[in-house]
Design goal:
The protein is flat. The chain is built from 30 helices and no strands. Helix content is 74%, strand content 0%. By secondary structure, it is mainly alpha-helical.
């Protein structure tokens, strides 16, 4: 309706606006639709739209971001009205400010001043405005960049928001602005996000700027860690000499070393033999470095050649921190593995390293629903003797049920998931208890039929029932009245507080 608003006659528009005054969802959708056609409206039509936005918050929420994006196109009177609308509902304020920030570079000096006058008195508007401006810093002129950086320097809370986006345009800044950014990072620990982006842009920095960056890293641990993490992400794009520079810094700066360790693990095959030796010495001497390095290697282990796989296995046998990190990395990509030899290698490590198995098992909460049915059954079977897998499988089974039985409870996918769930809780009491506890948090996402089937399990499986009781004791306040009624109909008692709530 909003998309074709400009094609309607006056009477049709009046009827639509009347309906929007009494139907909240219609009003919001109308506003969303008008985002598409607002630019082609004439001055009088825009006046009607802005007046509706002024008096109807739901309509305003739908169209507010577009009002910000179109701010520079509006007449002076309409600009003032948009900013008046921005003084009301917080969500509308944020959306209008976000839109204006995205086009701030298109405003003239007078328009910018009008916007900044509101920013001085409205914190919600200011936060969204500067965040949006930081995203397009490469399009801002020098004065606008100076304004943004001065805000970051004077307001620690806003500095944290700005830093998340600002570093992405670090290489586009003038030398003076780069130095100002680094100075802010020196005195404001909330500005550390800038360092990750500086690290990502390291190979674009000149030698003098690199020195400034490393000097700061020597005195501010948070900056050093972020710088290392950023450089780790681009390890494959660094030259041989640049990698040596990074390793020399890592040898003397623990925070930087721990930051870059994950990237060194992922990019280990990019290193020369001598560089590898330096990294492996750090693996031996720093537990946190070893864990993060292992996680990095784990995420790409399927790309490693046989020599490096043997190396990984040897390190894991003697370094539990590395083994744990390796398990975390491999677990995160296990569902992507297509080669039988890769899956077999991962499961061999599960069987031989308790530290690997524990971290690998924890990832199953998220990845279990994604692995093949064959691997699901294999992991459930392994959990009979590998307790480290139990927690992740129990939680992963609940996620599987929630995702596959949310809407179409009669689908074949849902049926297969329910059978797997039932088989798992029958053969493993620990999985049954964990699944029983966790299922409480997902009951509201299941169809009534599937909830009934799951609650019936509690009558037949003592361990599942005990877990369900634990979950109800902890999470019953999050259940709606319909589910509480179903529980009582199934003969499942509710905690005292929930029953009292029902009686009231």
């Amino acid at each position: 309706m909003g998309i074709s608003f400009h094609k309607l006659n006056g009477e049709e528009r009046r009827l639509i606006f009347n309906l929007a005054e009494v139907k909240e969802k219609f009003a919001e959708n109308l506003g969303l639709g008008l985002r598409e056609s607002f630019s082609v409206l004439n001055e009088e039509e825009r006046s009607h739209v802005l007046e509706m936005a002024r008096i109807n918050d739901h309509f305003a929420q739908g169209i507010s971001h577009k009002l910000g994006l179109a701010f520079y196109e509006l007449s002076w009177g309409h600009k003032k009205l948009v900013l008046d609308i921005a003084k009301g509902n917080n969500r509308v304020t944020e959306l209008i400010a976000d839109g204006i920030g995205s086009v701030f570079h298109k405003l003239n000096a007078e328009e910018k001043q009008l916007v900044l006058d509101l920013a001085k008195t409205n914190g919600d508007f200011t936060r969204s405005l500067v965040k949006s401006m930081a995203k397009i810093i490469h399009e801002l002129d020098e004065d606008d960049r100076s304004f943004l950086l001065q805000i970051a320097k004077s307001d620690k809370n806003l500095a944290k928001i700005i830093s998340i986006y600002l570093g992405r345009g670090f290489h586009d800044l003038s030398r003076e602005h780069k130095k100002l950014l680094l100075e802010i990072a020196r005195t404001n620990t909330d500005f550390y996000n800038i360092s990750i982006n500086v690290g990502r842009d390291f190979n674009n920095l000149d030698s003098r700027m690199r020195k400034l960056v490393f000097d700061l890293a020597e005195s501010v641990n948070g900056f050093a860690s972020g710088l290392g993490a950023g450089m780790g992400e681009i390890i494959g794009n660094l030259s041989y000499e640049e990698i040596w520079v990074a390793l020399e810094k890592a040898k003397v700066n623990v925070s930087f070393a721990r930051g870059i360790s994950f990237g060194l693990g992922k990019g280990f095959d990019e290193l020369s033999n001598r560089q590898r030796e330096v990294v492996l010495e750090m693996v031996k001497s720093d537990k946190e470095f070893a864990r993060s390095f292992g996680r990095g290697m784990g995420t790409v282990f399927y790309e490693l050649n046989s020599r490096d796989r043997e190396l990984v296995t040897r390190i894991a046998e003697s370094n539990p921190e590395f083994a744990g990190g390796l398990g975390l990395g491999v677990g995160g990509v296990f569902h992507h593995l297509t080669r039988e030899e890769d899956r077999r290698q991962a499961l061999d490590w599960v069987n031989t390293s308790p530290e690997f198995a524990k971290e690998f098992g924890d990832t199953l909460e998220n990845t279990f629903p994604l692995v093949s049915l064959e691997d699901k059954r294999l992991l459930i079977e392994m959990a009979k003797v590998k307790e480290e897998l139990v927690q992740g499988i129990g939680k992963g089974l609940v996620r599987l049920i929630s995702s596959s039985c949310k809407e179409d409870s009669l689908s074949s996918t849902c049926g297969k998931s329910m059978k797997l769930f039932l088989d798992a809780i029958k053969i493993n009491p620990q999985i049954a208890r964990i699944a029983g506890r966790e299922i409480v948090t997902e009951l509201r996402n299941l169809s009534r039929e599937r909830r009934k089937a799951i609650l019936e399990m509690a009558k037949e499986n003592r361990d599942f029932a005990e877990g369900l009781g634990e979950g109800l004791a902890e999470f019953s306040n999050n259940l709606n009245e319909e589910i509480k009624k179903e529980l009582l109909e199934q003969g499942i008692p509710l905690p005292a507080s929930s029953e009292e709530g029902q009686e009231e």
